[in-house]
Amino acid sequence: MAMPPKPWPTGLVETIEPLVRRVLAPNGSPFTYTGTQTYLVGTREGLAVIDPGPDLAEHLAALIAAIDGAPVLAIACTHTHRDHSPAAAPLAALTGAPVIGCAPLSITSDEPRADAPFDQDYAPDRVLQDGESIRGPGWTLTAIATPGHTSNHLCFALEESGALFTGDHVMGWSTSVVSPPDGDMADYLASLERLYEREDRIYYPAHGPAVTKPRQLVRGMIGHRRQREKQILRLLDGVAQPIGSLVPLMYKSVPEALWSAAAQSVKAHLIDLEQRGLVTRMEDVWTTNA
User: Fold this and answer.
1) How many angstroms separate the CA atoms of 152 and 21, rounded?
2) Between the N and C ends of the chain, which has fewer C-beta atoms within 10 Å?
């Protein structure tokens, strides 16, 4: 999806349905689209803040203005990439709200990463398990475990309206980067299958427009990943190759500046195929099994 023309509505409060408002952070990039969308769920009597975003003074000021003195009952993070969770701590300090949501995550691998680095300072007051809920006056947010993009990724279902806040797991503008060692393609596909079985009315991702035909999009995303699998197996059939040789062949229509991210998803596919006994690697070179 092409980037929309500027100016983007950073810092503005947009009401998108009766219980949901949105504030866009000023961190647009090729990996974040127009920026991280922070969602405020609830009413003047009490609300939750989903994905508070990057720790930027301008964004925090916009969130405080949007909250406008209402009680903040929870600050909920879908995962701990640095464009999602760093504002949780300063927002908690300003509002007195607890940080409730995904588990903390520590990445010890020295492998280069193409996606946003993790927020090492994230420290939740309470970790939500799959199926647990946060409640406020007239609203209920239920955690749906969706590992894959990251191992600690959660979506949040707004039970009263049928909306699902999908973080980076499902986005309408782009597929998610699945970046090993923490990103896992098998988990990602299983999580997509789980969402496909649900009946959510609409998705609100952390980046990009709302998804108004959720199951149709998820079905297409699963098909896209299966096609990538087949493409990898076809390219490796009788020709051992490193990932660096596969990416230009698989992503001809993608700007070269994004190939490093694409390489991470190719690697995630290869690890999944290796675990299923379909490919073998020797150092950095991969080949199909006979």
Assistant:
1) 25
2) C
Other CB atoms within 10 Å distance of the CB of residue 90: 15
Residues 6+ apart with CB under 8 A from 164: 144, 155, 156, 157, 158, 195, 198, 200, 202, 203, 204, 214
CATH superfamily assigned to domain 13-223: Ribonuclease Z/Hydroxyacylglutathione hydrolase-like (3.60.15.10)
The residues spanned by each domain of the chain are 13-223, 228-288
Average pLDDT over residues 111-123: 71
> Is the pTM of the predicted complex or chain greater than 0.70?
yes
pLDDT of residue 114: 43
Which residue, 14, 26, 31, 15, is CA-closest to 171?
A: 31
Structure tokens at 49: 């803040």
Task: Say if CB 179 and CB 114 are below 8 A apart.
Answer: yes
The pair phi, psi for residue 101, each rounded to 5°, is: 165, -130
Q: What is the CATH topology of the domain spanning 228-288?
A: Arc Repressor Mutant, subunit A (1.10.10)
